[in-house]
Amino acid sequence: MTSFFIYKAILVVVVFGIMLMAAMYSTYLERKVAAFIQDRVGPNRAGPFGILQPLADGIKMFMKEEIIPEVANKTLFIVGPCIAMLTAIMAGVVIPWGGELVINGVPYVLQIIDFDFGLLYVFGVVSLGVYGIMIGGWASNNKFSLFGAIRASAQMISYEIAMGLSIIALIMMTGTLSLREIVEFQAGGTGSTWNFWNVVYQPLGFLLFLVCAFAECNRTPFDLPESETELVGGYHTEYSSMKLGFYLFAEYINMFISSAVISTLYFGGTNFPFMNDLGLSQNAITILGTLAFFIKIGFFVFFYMWIRWTLPRFRYDQLMYLGWRVLIPLAIANVAITGLVMILTDRI
Amino acid sequence: MKSLTGRAKVLDNPKMTFKERIYLPAIIGGITITLRHLFKRKATIRYPEEKRTFSPVWRGMHVLKRDDNGAERCTACGLCAVACPAEAITMTAAERKPGEEKLYREEKYAATYEINMLRCIFCGLCEEACPKEAIFLTDRLVSTDYARDGFIYGKDKLVEPVDKRVDVSKRQTPNVLEFKKIKHYRHNR
Amino acid sequence: MTLYAFYFLSFLAVMGALMVVFSRNPVTSVIFLVMTFFTIACHYMLLNAQFLAAVHVIVYAGAIMVLFLYVIMLLNLNEAVEKQKTLLLKVAAIVTGGLFMIVLSAALRTAETSYIDTSVVGSARNLGKVLLNEYLLPFEAVSLLLLAAMTGAIMLARSRKRIKPAPNVVGMTHEREQTKTVVHEQ
Fold this sequence. Notes:
Helices cover 22% and strands 15% of the residues of chain B.
């Protein structure tokens, strides 16, 4: 029992640390990707290739003067970034970071907790994330912040529906809400019985989920809540110092988590090709699987940035049009088509 | 309706095709372009380690030249100040005292000579106006400062030191020097 | 341990509910209401009704309360705007609250705790089987009702304005007119 708690505690600390590190280095990666796409070199002064830049940024964030506006609602002004950060980190609990690691004959699963409704848990936590933005935007007592907050809430609600509908087809296929079981569903078979990743069966569902994930993370082209060209900084206009840092961090953690969810749902999670054919031991497969998982996550984080520096922002009516009149009907059609195919191929 | 310039074009705004409407091919086109840029050579010059080469005709910070004996060439005639389109140059003239022949070449010299580097547009007209070959623009940079006062360069910064002559031959090539001798051009007189 | 969790969550839920009523600022009220919902969702978890808990959080805390907050933010209610209640309203509130209390206590007095085998109910799989086998007809009836409500809402929203907004959505519109424009080039 005690060893169980120690193992879980270590896992929690490690996952927490990985998420914070990922968020830190996402800021570095963001600046590098932006620079490279614009034919520049990006940060290269702090350490070799500028790899200490996130550290310098963090120190700067802590040292900056903290300003709380006179007219702001002080309590809620502080609560806002806390909620944003809390909900961002909470979602990491159910992600299956790896398979089973057998040490001294005791299996250790590299996942903090496996709810059998894991996917719904992620949805619930993500849907709470908007409160951080809304409260912060409202408590700033600034028109731009309020606009940002209102845009964020409307956008979140609109895209949550499309997101939920887009994974129903996937759940129909896999027949489970547990993220671990979804990963196991995609585990590669051996020899003649191939088992493809879900993206092969659900290309449309994947596309819809990806678009909705972009919208839920407030990333370009859906970054209307913080659009700096129109709303100064959107909901975090009035924020400074580490409270601003919390918002930015929360955004990057959200990005990391959503990349992890996309990889888990559609790209096999910890599975990698030929994993059962190479004749590796269980532990080696687990470690390589975790590595593969992080490569996939890294790719999607990069993809987020890639899109950010490619596409311009949507107009607000375009955003709503896309959410309600394109994505939702497509998602429903996807559910219907998947059901039909499942009936025709007797896969129920 | 006929346009005034005669260059008006009638734009056709046709209905979008299905391919255009689904928007994805356009996105894929966009991300391939950005991907290509990701691997392109970077245009950045990493400044302190790597310096940009100046073009041979670069006009930078001014220098007030001395002659071969180390005496200042400037005679404070004020032609440069008159020629200056930005009115950046001011000076006060003074008469040379006996015994100062080593310091000043002509009988009149500039007691103060100031160029406001914030006003200066580095056009080089002062250099062209100078009848005494005293002022030249060099390939040195005007350094930054925190205060506006720091950009008013006096003689201390403009006159070249005796032991550290400033090379102006980069722009004053033999061709240029030859050209300056042709007296029937008005500005060479 | 479950018992302690129950006490802790109950304390939070009750405190949250009280703060909803007592806080002067409507936005604070909404936030405490969200907290109450969240703790109640945790109570569902303790009862092994995980699906219900997740849906409770997603629907109530994640969607409906966001809309509440949205409206309150737009109304810009301040503490100063709050009207003083009349004596009649106060008396009416006390009487209503008292009556509700009586009903509640009467209901709770005769209620008896029943044992539920938590291993067979609650999870999404079991709930889905029960809903779509035993209670298929009521389930479909409820969905029809929701569909009708949704259609009604859309109809109400549409009939107010007949003007069709022309979305000039690049890449997504279907009704982009065939136009010919003259553009002067320099």
